[in-house]
Amino acid sequence: MRALRADEQSLLRALIASSDRALLQQLPDALVQESEDGTVGIRFLRPFDGLTRFSRTVATADFIDGDGMPVSTALHVDKGGRLMELDFAKMDFSPILKYPSPNELVIRPATTFQNESRWEILRKLWRDDIPVDDLGNYVARRAAIIAYLGIAWLPFKFLLMILDLLTTGVRGGGVPDAGLELWRLAFCLMALAFIAIAPTSVWRSAVKGLAVDHTPAAARVDANWYAAATVLVLVVPAIVFVAICK
Question: Which of 59, 87, 122, 207 could bridge 223 with an S-S bond, Cβ 3.0-4.6 Å?
């Protein structure tokens, strides 16, 4: 844990000035630590509460590092409007040699969800900022969503059958079966998405949360148990979901 260095403050001021100048008030008292999740950058220390999670990317920029390699940088804030993370993506994945001066930056418009690359979207889905104490609620909410999808299928299926009856007559035209299968597939894919994403997010968040009081190796081992428990918890409503949708 440390205060911001002068070169970090200079870079942050340039990024903030291009988007949300109100964030400048947070810099004097900011405390940061080096990212320890395989990425390059700094993470701002914030209280773990309901607003700790990622909200948006404030600003992005490009610059050339001391070895001539292109680097992209992005500044993120959480749902409480607090500075969350400054990260870097270097072309050859080597360490950053020096922070750029403001006149070396090429500021780009803040990334929006619609313009993000597929990898950036997936990276946000695989979250890593869920407080350890909230992991149980996070998994329970996803289990409830899977169950709700299964329950919602029954009235939705009935509605589709009524629409088919009104449009094709009492005997039907054979097409509704294909339509029902298509909608059933869509529901199943939504449920599968929650099952696929949740364990990864739980593992990443558990590793970061447990690393405060554990060695990295021990944190990873414990995080494996968190992820395994997540899979078990989500499989039960998934089985119910499949049974209902048959």
Answer: 207
What token pair was written down for 233?
């918890």
Mean pLDDT to the nearest integer, 69-90: 90
Mean pLDDT of the chain: 78
Is residue 71 within 8 A of residue 91, CB to CB? The reply is: yes
HEC letters along the chain: CEECCHHHHHHHHHHHHCCCHHHHHHCCCCEEEECCCCCEEEEECCCCCCCCCEEEEEEEEEEECCCCCEEEEEEEEECCCCEEEEEEEECCCCCCCCCCCHHHCEEECCCCHHHCCHHHHHHHHCCCCCCHHHHHHHHHHHHHHHHHHHHHHHHHHHHHHHHHHHHHCCCCCCHHHHHHHHHHHHHHHHHHHHHHHHHHHHHHHHHHHHCCCCCHHHHHHHHHHHHHHHHHHHHHHHHHHHHHHC
Residue 119 has pLDDT above 60, yes or no: no
Answer with the residue of higher pLDDT: 157 or 85. Answer: 85
Instruction: Report the greatest alpha carbon distance in the chain.
Output: 76
Rounded to the nearest angstrom, the gap between the alpha carbon of residue 152 and the centroid of all alpha carbons in its chain is 26
What is the distance between the alpha carbons of residues 223 and 201, in angstroms, rounded to a whole number? 10
For residue 113, what pLDDT band results from cuts at 50, 70 and 90?
Answer: very low
